[in-house]
Amino acid sequence: MSEQNEKSVDSTVAGIEFVTTVQPNPVMPTWLPEALLLGQWWRSTGLLEQLQQQVRVSRGRMGQYEVCDFVLLLLAYAVSGEASLAGFFQALTPVKHLLMAVWGRARCPVASTLSRFLEAVEEGALESLRQLFEHNLLQQSLPVSCNGGLYDRRGERYWVFDLDGTHEATRQRSLPITQEYPDLHRRSSKACAPGLLGRKRGQVVRTRSALQQAHTSEWLATFGSPGNGTAQSDLVRACAVIKQYIEQHGINPAAVIVRLDGYYGVPAFVNVVQHHQFGYLLRGRDYQILNYPTVQAKLAQAPAQPWQHP
Fold this sequence. Notes:
Number of helices: 10
Shape: globular
Oligomer: single chain
Number of strands: 6
Strand content: 5-15%
CATH architecture of the largest domain: 2-Layer Sandwich
Largest sheet: 6 strands, mixed
Structural class: alpha/beta
Order of helices and strands: HHHHHHHEEEEHEHEH
Number of domains: 2
């Protein structure tokens, strides 16, 4: 091509300049500042020191990692919003040393190391970690005097606690069972078990219950079990956490409403909530009460009093 036909384009005409370099410059994940802020808060409030002193996990090949290394990874994974651990570790690769440095740690565990650690966690260590979170929650919780509430028509104030139970199905790939291979086992055998699948596809399920203060969005507790779960014991533990919370803030038990979903929608669980003198809002698993003739006759009548929300 001749010089007369060549067109030179100035990159500054549109106000944009392109700069290239041979040095790699990975993109920083958007969730990193929040993870660093959360890690610094743990360190400044003494929660990291309590974690290192109170939570112990006995496992072989401990190596160069401590419990706090895996807790920091799980905290970052929780705030990242990534759909899977694979996506989280991919985004973590360029900034893993920066994340671990917030707690003074030099090395970052890989995904397989985290998986082996979670498999070795026993019930005692899990309870120690849960008690650590509960104690810190009561000490650092938000004041409820100026944070929302539910008011009825008489102006009385109530506090709502949301207890939600969910089932998550897991699909398992087929494993070869022949004499040429040793005995095989799945890492998810302790976390998942056969159970109610519902409309989800899979072979095994895991049940999880989460307790939240509805007005301040404080996450109070979580309980996980393989299979259909242990709804009775989880509800008892959740009510105990609510009781500690309201005692810390001076809330009357009669002003507490526990919202339960269909996982707890049987009459037997209502007795557990009433034992603590809490109110409840329950979505039952069956709605046979609407088929009673007395209820049908009442619904067919005109409303006793119309009321409009302000």
